Structure formats: structure tokens, C-alpha cells
Amino acid sequence: MEMELAGRADEAMEEFVVDVENTAPYSPLAEAEKAQWVAHCIYRVPARIKNLEAGPHVYKPHTVSIGPFHHGDPELVPMEGHKHRALQHVARRAGKTAGDFIAAMEEVAEQLESAYMDLGDDWRGDKRGCFLQVMVTDGCFLLEIMRTAAGENVQDYAVNDPVFGPHGQQYTVPCIREDMHKVENQLPLLVLKRIVDVESKKKSVNEVNMMVLEFMSSSSGSFSTKAADQVLGLHPLDICRQSKLFDSYMEVLPPSSTPGSNDGVSSRFSAVKLYKAGIKFARSNPCILEEIEFDSRRGLLTMPYLEVDDTTEHMLLNMMAFEYLHVTATYGVTRYVLFMEEIIKSAKDVKRLRKEGMVRNNVGPDEEVARMFNRLTKNVIDDPLHNVLQQMDDYLGHLFRRQVNKCWGHFVHTYFHKPLRT
Asked: For a Cys-Cys bond, which of 34, 61, 89, 353 suits 358, CB 3.0-4.6 Å?
């Protein structure tokens, strides 16, 4: 018996060695892996991030599962019936069958599967049918939620419908919108595009992007429409993030663009200290988080207006997690958050920024906003818009030297303006 087991072990080892050796050093393996990483855009958040102070609940949906990662979670099951109702309404209104939508997803099934990193075997191969059903059902649900929220002429729902009626718009839709910001709870926008094509509505890529942007903007302040003018977004969180940045992605991540240290910046200044030093504040474009500049000639710091509400922390954390996980994503949101943490050290700084019209606090005491930015930056690699901090550091250093020279001049003029007499 022992010899038989040893023989099987040897055979397995030989197969392993042959399999590895058959992969030539310069085979297409690297290219295949590169294509695989490019295709991924929806991720499970690693434990090292979930276990930080904010906690794992920040990245999990609490009302509805979107996509496969949280499908079947017990607390989210009650929404499944409403998803199927949405599919029925979409199909009936378009004069199509569920099979028509499944067939449309089948044509891009591999692309949709590849979007999810670490998609389990429960959704692949013989189980692909379950995966496609989730794509169609969740896609129809999101479309109906966005359509009713936008006031489109969708009249085949009862006035007392708990999700798609007026009551749902007030109480349920805000929770669904918040779940659409969760990095683990995403659906490729390709799904929405395929569904509207089957409906024969033939919306353009820009129209699909804009529909999602307008829905997401209802709870998170102003959005730039720049993202809607580009290619089809990856998913709702992606198109939301794109709308807040100048540059969302890069082809190759150069070393100089990777977050690093702040060598050369010798000081940090809170909003109160900046104000006391004579620096003025002004609003920049509220849609673009990266639009933070310092004018050393006028001593003027321009930055986007920020409205903080109950959804702000979760939205920023999920965008930061996406930037951490998606290889070609820039660090625009992360750098913005790090910059804000630099100038907000206490409730006094929040109060000063409120008085300057730079921040609106809808979450309670100013201390809550200060603590929020402190939590957001725990264990984050430090690179908070280095050039802006450097400019302010140089400016304040120049002011300090000028004040010292002025004081010294006053001292000399007062006590040494006449020669000493002996």
C-alpha cells in the first residue's frame, strides 16, 4: 500500500515538472497574464484593508447585492424578489423574453467573468448559467431603479410599490445608491449597455455613462460630466470616480507616479495655522478633487468645496480601495484625502474651513469630520499632493524669514540708530 501511494506521488511530481518545463521561458504566458490583469476591475477587498479602523462593513452592501460576490448573503435576500419583478417589467415593456437578455450576455460572457477577480468556480463552467442570470437580473434592477429615480415615464409600477414607487424613492433608493459605491458590489456597465440594446433603445456609450452619473450624483454633490465623454465606464463606482479626477488611468505606472515619501517638505500646517499665517482660501472646481493649487504670489490656496454627509466616508474609502487594487488606476482620490488630512488636524481646522466656505458639515460636531479624515488615512502610503505642500512650505518659510528680518530691523533701529557714546 505504501509503495502504491509513493508511486502515485512520484507520478504527480513528474506531471508537475513536465507541465512547468513545457512552459518556455519566453512563451505567451506573460502576455496572457497581462491580459488577465487588464480585464479585472471588480475586486474583493483584502483582509489587511478590511481590518483597519473603519471595519469590513464599509465595503459590504447592506440593502441589495449587485453582482456575484454578495449574491445570496442572508441579509440581502429580501431584495431578490424585487429584482425579478424588475426583469419582468423590462421584458414585458420591451416585448422580449428573459432568454433574449440571457443570449445577449452569453455573447460577452467571458468578458463579464473576467471583470471579477477571484470569481469562484460556483459561477464558471457548468455554473455559467447562474452567473448570466445574476447579470441580467441585477442589470434590469439597476436600470429600473435609475429610470424611476430620474422620473422617466415608467408607469407600469403600482403607486404604492415599496421599491419603485414614491415611498421607495424616499426610503429605499438612497440605501441602494450607497450600496452602488461599494467596491465589492459592482456590475460591469457593459451589462447595462447590452440590456438597453436588446430593448432596442440603442443608447450610446455616453448616454449609459451619463445615466449612471446622474443617479450617483443625487447623494454625493456635484459631478463633472467629463467621464461621460469617454469610453464605457467599468462599473458605477468607476464612472463616479472618473468624474472627480483629471486623469483616472495610466497605461504604465511609472515609478515617479507611485505614492512615496515626502522628502523635502519640512513642515505641515493645519487650516488654522495657514489662516493665521495670512494664507487665503478660495474654491476651485467642486467637481474635480485634484484641483488644488497654491498661488505663492497672492498667498492663495484654491481647493474644491466639500460637503460631508453620512455617505462621504464610505464613498471615499471604496474609491481609495479601488485605486489600491486596480493596477492602472491613478491615486487621485487617495492624494486628495491625504491632503485634507494634512490641513485638518482638529475640530478647529474644520470650523475655520467652514467659515471660509470650503467645507459644509452635515454629520454633526466638527470633531467628527476631523476624526473621519484621520480614519481615512490610516496605513495609507503618504503622498499628499507633494508639490502643493512644498509650495506652501516655501511660502511660509519665506514669510517667517521676512518677519525675522523685520523684527531684527526694528530692534536695530530702536536700540542702535545712534552710535554709542563713551
From this structure: 353
Q: What is the tens place of the pLDDT at every residue in 196-213?
A: 999 987 788 999 999 999
**Neighbour count for residue 293 (Cβ, 10 Å):** 15
How far is the CA of 131 from the CAs of 41, 109, 284, 285, in angstroms? 17, 9, 44, 41
pLDDT digits over 79-90, tens only? Answer: 999 999 999 999
Identify the burial level of 13 via C-beta atoms within 10 angstroms of its C-beta, where 0-12 means exposed, 13-18 middle and 19 or more buried. Answer: exposed
Cα 54 from Cα 317, distance rounded (Å)? 9
Question: Helix, strand, or coil here: 302?
Answer: strand
Assess contact for 180 and 237: CB atoms under 8 A. Answer: yes
SS3 category, 386: helix
Q: Determine the Cα–Cα distance for residues 168 and 148; give it in Å rounded to an integer.
A: 10
Residue 420: what residue type?
L
Q: How far is residue 386 from each of residues 147, 247, 303, measured CA to CA in Å?
A: 42, 17, 15
Q: Which three cell numbers stand for residue 15?
A: 506531471
From residue 353, alpha-carbon distances to 203, 270, 281, 299 in Å are 42, 10, 8, 16
Tell me which residue has cell 554709542: 420
Q: CA distances (Å), 85 to each of 81, 126, 167, in order?
A: 6, 26, 17
Q: Which of 217, 35, 355 is nearest to 225 (CA)?
A: 217
- Using the structure block, give the residue that is written with the C-alpha cell 447595462: 192
Mean pLDDT of 224-249: 81
Query: If you search the block for the grid coordinates 450624483, which residue do you land on?
Result: 217
Q: Which amino acid would we find at residue 306?
A: L
DSSP states along 202-218: ---HHHHHHHHHHHHTT
